[in-house]
Amino acid sequence: MLHLDGGAGGGQLIRTALSLSLVTGEAFEMKNIRGNRSTPGLKAQHVACVSVAESVADADVDGGVEGASTLQFDPGPVTSDPVDVAVGTAGSTTLVSETLLPVAVALDDSLTLTVTGGTDVRWSPPADYLRYVKRPLCATFGVSFDVDVNRRGFYPAGGGRLAVRIDPADPNPVEFLSRPPLDSLDVYSVAGKALADASVADRQVEGVRDGLATAGIDVPIRTSATYAESTSPGTAVVLVARCGEIVAGFDAYGERGVRAEAVGAQAAEAFTDWCRSDAPVDRHMADQLLVWVALAGGRVRIPAVTEHVQTNLDVIRAFGYDIDVRERDDGSVVERID
Predict the structure, then answer these.
(1) Which sites are catalytic (predicted)?
(2) What is 2-176+293-336's CATH superfamily?
(3) 286 is in an annotated binding site
């Protein structure tokens, strides 16, 4: 059994450990989970991640409850039986889904996952990021999954429903070192139906347009503004930039007291910052691709090796993957050494 320290990181360390445990069959114990957080231990969405991982591998689990600071996880073989889990309130359904995506390399048949909770909540990727950014980017290196948003779930009530089908995969090496010119920019703006009379989703789109104009960026955009059934009112906006095979995403969430136009401008600002750099992928995707470098091989250039990146790499290496980081003038290259 591997012995891991979760004190220096957050939920990403738990998700990485669960993913690689499922793929390798290696049991682990993680102590001091989220020890450096103001409220340490497992939260509801982390417990849901443990639950789906337990389900697909009939794992022996000790400590997979809310508030636990130690988790032991010993998986059996991965199966393709359907999995249905409720995160509770507005816990992130997208982060739960992220936990299972790497098991594509261990599947014999497609696996369906249904998660109830928050589809668009702070500190996690919006549902439209998962389906319009992560999904096409993964397809470029041979990993295929589908995402359906059956119902939107915003903070605080959640109640959203996300359905994911993960296909078996034998991925090609990941190779993201440079960024081709911009091909297209799409804007996906969504709000609960309770906000339709105030035209919130449409105003977020206008905020994106104004933000791009202020930054002096003149690019044609395609837009989608929708109003969805939801238990709690809420909003999200996602910008999707396509540059050849590279797909990058930039998002913002609405909040009480913040004008919809300002929310759109916030997402536009993140996009313009990326445009002025030469980063091949957005900063959130750079972190997510570390596990795929381990599983598929290849190289990914990231802006810097932050503490968040380093702790994640430490977990990946603990599972036996030889991952190297090479410093360059234009950033750091993470690669698997074969």
Answers:
(1) 308
(2) RNA 3'-terminal phosphate cyclase domain (3.65.10.20)
(3) yes
Lowest mean pLDDT: which of 157-166, 271-280, 323-332?
323-332
Mean pLDDT of 256-279: 95
**Is 284 annotated as a binding-site member?**
yes
Domain 184-276 falls under CATH 3.90.79.10 = no
Are 2-176+293-336 and 184-276 the same fold in CATH? no
**Where along the chain do its domains lie?**
2-176+293-336, 184-276
Q: How many residues would you count in the chain?
A: 338
pLDDT at 309 over 80: yes
Residue pLDDT, tens place only, 171-222: 999 999 999 999 999 999 999 999 999 999 999 999 999 999 999 998 899 9
- Catalytic one among 70, 308, 318, 333? 308
Q: Is 285 annotated as a binding residue?
A: yes
Whether the bond between 173 and the residue before it is cis, its omega within 30 degrees of 0, is no
Question: Residue 327: which residues within 8 A CB-CB, separation 6 or more?
Answer: none
pTM above 0.90, yes or no: yes
Q: Is 46 one of the catalytic residues?
A: no
